[in-house]
Design a protein that fits this description.
By secondary structure, this protein is of the alpha+beta class. It has two domains: about 100 residues, Phosphorylase Kinase, domain 1, CATH 3.30.200; about 190 residues, Alpha-Beta Complex (Aminoglycoside 3'-phosphotransferase, Chain: A, domain 2), CATH 3.90.1200. Strands 1, 2, 3, 4, 5 and 6 form a six-stranded antiparallel sheet that branches. Helix 5 crosses helix 10. The chain is globular.
C-alpha cells in the first residue's frame, strides 16, 4: 500500500514553516516506511492527519491494531512520549513505542471517528472529560517536563509589549486583570502532569475503556490551568442557555468539583490561560481579544 501525504497536511506545514515544512512533508513517506520496517508494522488503512501530524493505522507483528504517529519535533510535542509513558494508559492512549529523535510514536489504536463531541448531552460529555482529567493530573510530572512556572513568567514578560499593541482600553484592562492573576499565582505553579489541551475532540472512544485522552502537550503545573479548553467547547450550547455567565460557571463548578480544586486558584489559572491565548493573538497581529475568551473571563473573574 502506497503512503500518500494528504495535501491539507502539506499546506498546513507550508503555512507554519514555509519551505522547511514542505520538505518535511515530502519526506513523510520515507520516514513512515522506516518505522514500518523497524517496528514490524503493516499498514491497515488510509492516512489521517491533524494540523501537524500524520497518523497511519497499522497492525503490529503480534496482530495488535495500532496507530503510527509522525510529527516534527517541537517544544510543544517533545514531551508527548514521556507524558504518555508516565500515564501508562491511565485515562490516556497507550504508548507502545517512541523515537524521541524524530517525534515518532506508536500508539494504541482508538476510534478516530468517535470523539467526545459526539455525546449529545453537553454536561454528560463534560463529566466524562472531567473524570479523565482528574485521573491524568493525579500523577506528578516526570523530570524534564516543561514547567508552568516558566510559561507563567514568559507570559508576564510579554504583557507590556502586548498592552502597547492593543488599541482598545477594554482589551488592555482585561489583559491587566489576567496578568494580575498570573502574577499572584506564579509563585505556586504546581507539579502535576497536565495534558494542556484536553477538549472534546481530544477524547476518543476506545475498547480498553469507554473514552481515552489523546494528543497531550505535557506540562508540569497546577490543574487549574487545564480548564479553559473544556469551558469554551461547544460554545453554541453555552449561548443557547440564554445566560452565558451562568452556563460558564456551571461548567467551571462541575470541573472544579470533580477535580476537587480550590475554586479561586482555578479561576486565577483560567484567567492565566486566557492571558496566554490573548498573547498568542497579539503575536499573530490581532488587535482585539476573542469574544468567547472575554465572556469566560467575565464569568470566572467573579470567582477570582
Amino acid at each position: 500500500m502506497r503512503i500518500v501525504v494528504p495535501p491539507a497536511l502539506t499546506e498546513s506545514h507550508v503555512k507554519w514553516d514555509g519551505e522547511a515544512g514542505r520538505a518535511w512533508s515530502a519526506g513523510l513517506p520515507a520516514l513512515a516506511e522506516r518505522y514500518l520496517e523497524e517496528w514490524e508494522l503493516r499498514l491497515d488503512g488510509g492516512p489521517m492527519h491533524g494540523v501537524v501530524s500524520l497518523v497511519l493505522p497499522v497492525v503490529r507483528a503480534d496482530g495488535t491494531p495500532a496507530a503510527l504517529k509522525l510529527q516534527p519535533v517541537s517544544d510543544e510535542n517533545a514531551g508527548e512520549g514521556p507524558g504518555l509513558r508516565a500515564w501508562a494508559g491511565e485515562a490516556s492512549v497507550l504508548l507502545y513505542d517512541a523515537d524521541p529523535d524524530t517525534g515518532t510514536l506508536l500508539l494504541e489504536r482508538l476510534d478516530s471517528n468517535r470523539s467526545l463531541s459526539a455525546v449529545p448531552d453537553d454536561l454528560e460529555a463534560l463529566e466524562i472529560l472531567a473524570g479523565l482529567l482528574r485521573r491524568l493530573v493525579a500523577r506528578p510530572a516526570p523530570p524534564g517536563t516543561r514547567r508552568l512556572a516558566d510559561i507563567a513568567q514568559g507570559m508576564l514578560d510579554d504583557v507590556p509589549a502586548a498592552l502597547e499593541a492593543l488599541p482598545g482600553e477594554d482589551e488592555r484592562r482585561w489583559l491587566r486583570v489576567c496578568a494580575g492573576a498570573v502574577a499572584e499565582l506564579a509563585g505556586e505553579p504546581g507539579d502535576r502532569l497536565l495534558h494542556w489541551d484536553l477538549h472534546y475532540d481530544n477524547v476518543l472512544a476506545a475498547e480498553r475503556e469507554p473514552w481515552l485522552a489523546i494528543d497531550p502537550k505535557p506540562l508540569a503545573g497546577d490543574p487549574g490551568f487545564e480548564l479553559l479548553p473544556a469551558l469554551d467547547n461547544r460554545w453554541d450550547d453555552v449561548v443557547a442557555t440564554g445566560d452565558v455567565r451562568r452556563a460558564v460557571l456551571r461548567r467551571f463548578d462541575l470541573m472544579t468539583d470533580v477535580l476537587e480544586l480550590d475554586r479561586r486558584r482555578a479561576a486565577g489559572w483560567t484567567l492565566g490561560r486566557i492571558l496566554q491565548n490573548a498573547l498568542w493573538s497579539v503575536e499573530d497581529g490581532e488587535t482585539r481579544l476573542h469574544d468567547v475568551q472575554l465572556a469566560i473571563a467575565e464569568a470566572v473573574v467573579t470567582v477570582w
